[in-house]
């Protein structure tokens, strides 16, 4: 037989079967990016399917586990235990998860038939830590995607400055606890036992998250890979198609965008952004008078903008993707002063539309910003430092195509999917 007709080892292999376990296929950002990953994997020849708690799409490669009634019961049971442990304070009820109850996913045919099992965001009743153990006993390579800090803390999704996860959790501020043996410590110990028993490969979606995981008491010795979330850069464009005159925006000025789902949530540090804009207005009036700030997102009290001198417009929540992309394409700068963000969506969206990104070196905010090339990273979280970044971005003309292309090359779905496929092949064939 001619050599050209002999199949290579890659050609002889059947497609890798991957079962991705995720809270949902559509509900919440981790679910959206996980579904996007599943579709991208299928496009490059990986037989990927999703097993979810809440199914919202009609995708035939997504399967829901359990009934709606049982899902509600499991969800409420977990929240009730947290509520009793945090002294009945509702304000932190959804900042933590304890994975004490979940569905029997290990017996799902897609999971049992898979070559690789991928865990994504699995909280709020989908998987218990006990069920993760059962999945591990199937003796398949397991990959766990970390969308936040929960994998290496006791119970919180973002520690919000607490550093107890670097040793052992306990005396948890989310529980208002002074006990070193509280619920957070008990869950921390269960995670430690799980990780010691199961050979899990963890994926961090940002360099910052990877670094924090390596500092933790739980994952300092773990196998951690950094692969970013896939991002649809192709959906964003750099030249506005039709300026939206319905918005009270002066398009003759350079637009600075500031946006978040909950704009005035403490972690967004809106006051720092306002102080920086005021500093710019007072010290560089010519720059300020040539620009305008456009805020989008929900605020609890619109009076938060009363002390802002800089010309601005707040348009509330934007649910129209077409409008949002038009606004990005019409802007010059996207600003975020958030305290932590595992994968900063607004900065990436802004860059995909050709905007300079301005941020601070905290959390994962600076992961995708090359200082003075595609944006500005303030080393200090001060009004003066952030104001200098905004001034630099307004004084310079962005190469909008270069900014778009940089996002596409780093976050394009096929690029991200190929990195996962390479990881899967190493785990299966090494």
From TrEMBL:
Class of enzymatic activity (EC top level): transferase
Annotated EC: 2.4.-.-
Gene3D superfamilies for the chain: Glycogen Phosphorylase B
Cited Pfam families: Glycos_transf_1 (PF00534)
Keywords carried by this UniProt record: Glycosyltransferase, Transferase
Residue ranges of domain Glycosyl transferase family in the record: 315-403
GO molecular function, one term: glycosyltransferase activity
Highest rank taxon of the organism: Bacteria
Database matches in PANTHER family: GLYCOSYLTRANSFERASE, GLYCOSYLTRANSFERASE EPSF-RELATED
Name of this chain's protein: Glycosyltransferase
Lineage: Bacteria, Pseudomonadati, Bacteroidota, Bacteroidia, Bacteroidales
């Amino acid at each position: 037989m001619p050599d050209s007709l002999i199949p290579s080892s890659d050609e002889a292999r059947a497609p890798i079967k991957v079962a991705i376990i995720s809270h949902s296929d559509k509900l919440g950002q981790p679910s959206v990016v996980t579904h996007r990953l599943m579709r991208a994997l299928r496009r490059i020849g990986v037989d990927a399917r999703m097993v979810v708690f809440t199914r919202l799409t009609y995708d035939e490669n997504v399967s829901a586990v359990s009934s709606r009634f049982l899902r509600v019961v499991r969800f409420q049971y977990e929240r009730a235990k947290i509520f009793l442990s945090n002294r009945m304070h509702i304000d932190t009820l959804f900042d933590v998860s304890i994975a004490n109850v979940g569905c029997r996913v290990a017996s799902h045919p897609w999971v049992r038939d898979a070559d690789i099992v991928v865990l994504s965001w699995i909280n709020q009743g989908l998987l218990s830590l006990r069920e993760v153990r059962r999945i591990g006993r199937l003796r398949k390579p397991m990959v766990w995607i970390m969308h936040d800090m929960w994998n290496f803390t006791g119970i919180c999704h973002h520690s919000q400055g607490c550093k107890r996860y670097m040793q052992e959790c306990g005396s948890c501020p989310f529980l208002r606890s002074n006990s070193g043996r509280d619920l957070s410590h008990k869950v921390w110990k269960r995670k430690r036992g799980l990780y010691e028993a199961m050979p899990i490969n963890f994926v961090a979606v940002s360099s910052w998250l990877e670094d924090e995981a390596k500092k933790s008491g739980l994952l300092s010795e773990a196998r951690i890979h950094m692969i970013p979330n896939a991002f649809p850069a192709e959906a964003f464009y750099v030249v506005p198609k039709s300026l939206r005159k319905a918005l009270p925006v002066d398009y003759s000025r350079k637009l600075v965008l500031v946006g978040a789902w909950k704009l005035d949530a403490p972690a967004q540090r809106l006051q720092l952004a306002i102080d920086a804009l005021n500093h710019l207005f007072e010290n560089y009036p010519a720059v300020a008078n040539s620009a305008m700030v456009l805020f989008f997102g929900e605020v609890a009290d619109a009076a938060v903008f009363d002390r802002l001198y800089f010309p601005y417009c707040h348009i509330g929540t934007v649910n129209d993707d077409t409008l949002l992309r038009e606004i990005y394409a019409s802007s010059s700068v996207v600003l975020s002063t958030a305290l932590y963000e595992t994968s900063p969506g607004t900065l990436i969206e802004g860059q995909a539309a050709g905007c300079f990104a301005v941020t601070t070196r905290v959390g994962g905010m600076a992961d995708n910003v090359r200082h003075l090339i595609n944006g500005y990273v303030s080393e200090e979280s001060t009004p003066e430092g952030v104001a200098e970044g905004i001034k630099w971005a307004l004084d310079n003309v962005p190469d909008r195509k270069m900014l778009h292309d940089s996002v596409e090359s780093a976050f394009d779905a096929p690029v991200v999917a190929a990195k996962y496929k390479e990881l899967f092949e190493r785990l299966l064939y090494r």
